[in-house]
Amino acid sequence: GEASGEPPGFSLSSRVQPDPSGSETCVCLQVEKHLEPFRLSLEKLQDVSARLRKDMLRGLGKHAHHRAAVKMLPTFVRATPDGTEKGDFLALDLGGTNFRVLHVRVLEEEQRVLKMDSQICAIPQEIMLGTGEKLFDHIAACLAEFLDSQKLRGQTLPLGFTFSFPCEQKEIDKSILIRWTKGFNCSGVEGEDVVRLLKEAIHRRGDYDIGSVAMVNDTVGTMMSCGYRDQSCEIGMIIGTGTNACYMEEMKNVKRVEGEDGRMCINTEWGGFGDDGSLKDILTEFDEEVDKTSINPGVHTFEKMISGMYLGEIVRLVLLKLTEEKLLFKGCPSEALLTPGSFETKFISEIEEPDSGLENAKKILTKLALDWDLVDACVARLVCDTVSSRSARLCAAALATIANRIRTNRGLDHLKTTVGVDGTVYRKHPNFSDELQAAVRLLAPKCDVSFLISEDGSGKGAAMVTAVAQRLALHCMLNFL
Fold it and tell me: What domains, with CATH codes, occur in the chain?
């Protein structure tokens, strides 16, 4: 049942007809023994939720945050949309080997955010490894080209900048790069303010200008892109290659930033939950192996149990173990099964499809050159279901912590809130969102949590952050006058 972690209506014995000798029943029991550590009871999930609550408090603390596994970074986004935002905005999205430039229009009457147009620009290898000046000159040149193509050159438009690298944000328009990741290594950027570097590159050209700049984390963009359609959207969550969440916290609890009034969006960086060893008791031998062989051992413990980058590898390791124990594939692993990364996370979604799952499982096992029978295909399906189910339930435990925190922060008996969500695991997996929502209902019973799939958080969401920042700045100026 729900509380035991057993997915509804799915058990190995219901998939496998035991033969009279009982040998297959024995196989069932041995398979279950290996899957048992993945099945987290409701009590255990409540316990995980309580641990995250403590870690969030530590991350918000003025002095404790240095030691915190959950970083709780202030984003300087001080409000969600109120529906009065309007106008034209630019968005810049840099997070990998390509970057996007967008023109976004916010229509107040229709309460809509429209992507007018966008352009993708490649970043050649020599620029990724060259000087910071060359990188920002390249970005400024692509932006100029885009403004020309949109006939926007004469206008000075505000810009939302999604920069998906580890940064320390000092203000809405000031963000210091801590270190490069994802194959970038431009000199002279680490320790510098990326907004200043962008503006300097634009000024070096001297042929156009931009208005105010707002730095945007992709998770915050996810929340904000939903916030115009649904003004109760105060949580953002990504479950894709990686995982993260943000939410609106009371300013008085954000000890690292001056001021007691209002709210601020906090980027939790919850992927690091457990990096201090607090989740050791729920890690399986397979999680430990995934961590050991990853490019960042000991880091992003929670993310490695949940996100798309790792789920396929966890399944591969379980299938390999069952094969070594002679419970699968006649005890013969193929070359592919022995190769790290060969079991893609998308295979999990395909194998769990309600109608075509078993057929897909057969095709995938054949593709991996395994000698399978029907029982093997059913067991592979059960392994996928168990691993993805744990991911959804752990994610639910973390989300419930945030919903419960917002509720108690506001002294409410009952909270109605919306989560803006993005990421391939949430979007593509057939049962993930249902399992997540069912577990959130159990773990945050006094919260009514709705889910909205984000539309282009790093584009439209970034523009919306800029629009809200502009509204607040104007409000502040009028009050001052």
Answer: 87-217+457-474 (3.30.420.40)
Write down the pTM of the prediction. Answer: 0.91
Q: What is the pLDDT of residue 457?
A: 82
pLDDT of residue 481: 67
The catalytic residues are 182, 218
Q: For the segment 313-364, what is each residue's pLDDT rounded down to a tens digit? A: 999 999 999 999 999 999 999 999 999 999 999 999 999 999 999 999 999 9
Assess contact for 224 and 465: CB atoms under 8 A.
yes
What are the tens digits of pLDDT across the range 4-51?
444 443 344 444 444 444 556 677 789 999 999 999 999 999 999 999
